[in-house]
Automatic annotation (TrEMBL):
Protein name: 1-acyl-sn-glycerol-3-phosphate acyltransferase
Pfam families from the UniProt entry: Acyltransferase (PF01553)
Involved pathway(s): Lipid metabolism
Residues in Phospholipid/glycerol acyltransferase domain copies: 70-184
Keyword Zinc part of the UniProt annotation: no
UniProt GO molecular function: acyltransferase activity
Keywords: Acyltransferase, Membrane, Transferase, Transmembrane, Transmembrane helix
Amino acid sequence: MRSRIFDFAWALWTALFAPVIPLLWLAGSPPRLVRKLTRIWARGVLVELAWIVGLNYVEQGRGHIPHEPCLIICNHQSTWETLAALVLFPDVAIIAKRELLRIPVLGWFLRRSPMIIIDRSDGAAALRTMIEEGAAALADGRSVLIFPEGTRRCPSEPIQFKRGVDLLYKRLGAPALPVVVDSGKFWGVASRRKRRGTITVTYLSLIPAGLSLADFARHGEQQMQAVHAAASLVE
């Protein structure tokens, strides 16, 4: 019941932003203002999630976040981290699938934030888009966030990077910040149900720029898997 009430409140909160779209469009859809409103929207969703469902979050190791923009690599277990990233990393450019643009209201804001939207069915073009728009975001002082597993995975599955994340790291030439979440224990991949509890967001040691493709992938996977495995043992 709490999950259903939250879904209704989420839809209502999102609908409140619809009247703002024509005003932003007339103003030329300024990216900074659009991103600010998107963060307000995401923060509101997290507040609703905490009040209605009782699902909160805590952060560990926030001191590892660098002052300069970087490539953020985060495991993907639920919708939660996509929402939370907008709050945890102000002005972040999230690499997101094109299907998200079909969501009413939210799709408009994501396109103009702007996020890095890719078509996952076209591997070469998707990688080119990630590299080109990722470089532009870094030059603009924005970090780039990617879910290296490519899609949401169950908490019981090990962390494994998809091919292309290592190439993105190499071409961007920026350090990478590994982030591990255990959101799947409370908001599953195939379920609309949300459970009461506390999601842990863990920031790990920065991976320096300039490693080989193999060293980057091995270091990132091992570092994230160690935290992921430990979290999986705690219910």
